[in-house]
């Protein structure tokens, strides 16, 4: 897992490999970290490596995020 922080926008980026994503312990760890960040006023953004077509996934994410801003 790799982690990056954007303090200005209060975002923490977590990058997981496919193996980490399928591991229950890793998932629990990431969820715990996301919860701890939320308590501090930051949001976790999780990226997961994979083999799926990126465009449809990004399109869905943009639509979801647009709805969150309303």
Order of helices and strands: EEHHEH
Strand content: 15-25%
Number of helices: 3
Strand count, sense and closure of the main sheet?
Answer: 3 strands, mixed
- State mean pLDDT (0 to 100 scale): 83
DSSP, total strands: 3
> What number of structural domains do the residues give?
1
Q: Supply the helix-strand structural class.
A: alpha+beta
- Summarize the amount of helix as a percent range: 40-55%
| Subunit arrangement of the protein | single chain
N-to-C CA distance: 32 Å
Q: Write down the overall geometry.
A: globular
Q: Which spans of ≥5 residues are poorly predicted at pLDDT below 50?
A: none
Q: Strand sequence of the main sheet, in spatial order? A: 1-2-3
Radius of gyration: 13 Å
Describe the structure concisely.
By secondary structure, this protein is an alpha+beta fold. The protein has 3 helices and 3 strands; from the N terminus they run ββααβα.
What does this structure look like?
The protein has 70 residues and is an alpha+beta fold. The chain has one domain (2-69). The chain has 3 helices and 3 strands, in the order ββααβα. It has helices at residues 18-22, 24-39, 54-69; strands at 2-6, 11-16, 43-48. Strands 1-2-3 form a 3-stranded mixed β-sheet. Strand 1 and strand 2 (11-16) form a beta hairpin. The longest helix is centred in the middle third of the chain and has 16 residues, at 24-39. The chain starts with a strand and ends with a helix. The relative contact order is 0.17. The mean pLDDT is 83.
């Amino acid at each position: 897992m790799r982690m990056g922080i954007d303090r200005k926008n209060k975002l923490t980026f977590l990058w997981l490999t496919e193996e980490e994503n399928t591991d229950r312990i890793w998932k629990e760890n990431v969820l715990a970290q996301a919860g701890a960040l939320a308590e501090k006023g930051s949001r976790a953004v999780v990226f997961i490596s994979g083999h799926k077509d990126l465009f449809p996934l990004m399109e869905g994410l943009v639509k979801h995020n647009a709805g969150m801003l309303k």
